[in-house]
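Please complete every field before forwarding. Incomplete forms are returned to the sender.

SECTION A: IDENTIFIERS
Entry label: holo-475
Bound molecule: zinc ion
Molecule representation: SMILES string

SECTION B: INPUTS
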Amino acid sequence: MHLSENKINYVFHHLWHHLSVPTLKSHEMVILKERYHPALGIKNKLIFQLSSDEKPQPVIVHYQGAPIPILFGLEKKDATLFQPDQQGNIIFNHDLLSSAFYLLSGQQETETDQKDQYGRYPYELSIQKQLDCAHLPLVNYYFDIITKGIEAYAKTHNKKVEHHRLFNDFGFFLSHDVDRVAYYHPLYILYRIKQFLGLAPSTFSKPKIIRLFFQGVFHHLNPFRGQDPWWNFDWMMKMEKQLGIRSTFYFLKQEDRLNNALYKYHHKKIKHLITRLHESGFEVGLHGTMRSATEKETLLRQKGEFEKATGLQPAGIRQHYLRFSLPLTFKNHEAAGLRYDTSLSFAERDGFRNGYCWPFHPYDFDSDEMMQIWEIPLVMMEVSALNYRQTGFSGLQKAAEQHILEAKKFGGIFSLLWHNCRINDIEVAGVSAFYKLLLKFIVNQGAESARGIDICNRITALEAQHPPTYPEVSK
Ligand SMILES: [Zn+2]
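SECTION C: PREDICTED COMPLEX
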């Protein structure tokens, strides 16, 4: 497809988060829109060749003992990934730049109008599904291959290479979307009647629905009733503090009564909760309402209400249901002055929607340029594994272990979303015990706990410290 100069620079901009070569000059990196040939007379350069294919032509290569798909392959699969020649060049044999751009920018999502019932890009359509590679942060692998090539070049040209990691081992970004706070809300109790009559969907049997209905009624009648199972914030905070974790809570709000929350920011209980979380070192941010993903005014209003009620300025957002429209949702987030978003995971499949386990800048396809806001990729939402993929607890645990291994390889992030309303043993037996064990396991893996804002600050500082060098593009 021959990347534009802005798109090429976008890829290099992110590559230089991982390494720097202070004495490497722009003219030492050459981008070819044709295949390399010695007759071109190029000497002492890093040579990148661009594919002219519009759509990925994947080639599976073996890298670090694992099969890795390169989306824009140029050679057969057993070709070396790069090689030196007699003229002091290093030549990359596949188009790693287009491959990285395609995933990181989310280009595939702009190539279709198809969305699921919630307005989301369906995993079914993705190249990750096609190649069964959602579990691999491919862009990190591509950058690793390019780094190896640059190291080979630096060695023969006497240059020093510095490597940067975002985390020494890996970062653990735990977050909670606060969709619902009252399991025994009168509306939910009345909803049981609808379910019993078959007028609303239910996963429970009729006797269980009746039991749940009366349980709800008795909860309200009982003067000695305990805490509502979805008002579990003290339990969550206490456990996280014990484990040395500080997480981020994203708050939704009531709007249109359409699939949003049943609370508002100015409700006393919510206001106090937000203040208490903030004062205990947890981060609080926005959980964008259904409309806010595409309506700027709605998002601005939501942010204004949050600030007015709490006196806090949210830095980050995650969209409810992970609803997203590229690049519109990002533009709205930027317009609202938010510093980062963390919505991008496939709803139906945990793993790497943009093929990356580091924070990155989104790409604005309308103006063909990089945006300033950060995306901190979401790697795993409990619902993706437990509900969509039906993995059960053991399957979720296994998937989490795999994601952590990838994050460790690249000093990146394992980001886990667990809703407070999904740690309810009445609905899912044993979930609170499993959740606690899982957090302990992650901490024992050497995790460094980081909130969204911490990650944002860390990558911003790293970027400021190491200004990028962009290559020369042949005409
Ligand atoms: Zn939500």
